[in-house]
Amino acid sequence: MKCFYFCGWCFVWWFVVSEWWRRERRKRWEDFFGFGLFDEIDRLMEEVMEDFERLARRGGGQPFIYGFSVTMGPDGKPVVQEFGNVKPSPRGPIIREEVEPLVDVFEEKDVVKVCAEIPGVNKEDIKLRLTDDGTLVISVDTEQRKYYKEVKLPCKVKPEGAKATYRNGVLEVVLEKVEKGGKSITVE
Question: Is the pTM of this model over 0.90?
Fold first, then answer.
């Protein structure tokens, strides 16, 4: 009993001293710099938590998915690609019903490969469409999952030579490039 009582006093002493030290440190900071940095951090954290709570109430139970991928572009500069269903806006984050999948585009000698992460769907539910302006549209609309992404292709491709495979949640679309320069002529 005495040991428990002693431990209880140790906890109370630690709490009082640590609270005193926190207030003293905050006071010294404010005296030195002339403003309350910790008060500002507390206010910002309150704002973030309120935004998150408001977002959670508005979301209606759907998951929040946000991510980004950083790759090196052909010019040597980093390219940041966002994916998910949370989109930033000046009025706060916007939650969309469709998830924008993570997509990589690889341009090879004769083909363009598009790889998209679309987990949790059947291959029969995936719809692909190639537009006239060279955009590949990937969409899935099921009760459980919704995906949508428009991918601008780096060059002209032949729609009739397209092949798509779907394994382990990854969609791979291979598109043949349109031959450049027309037809070659042999000299006799």
Answer: no
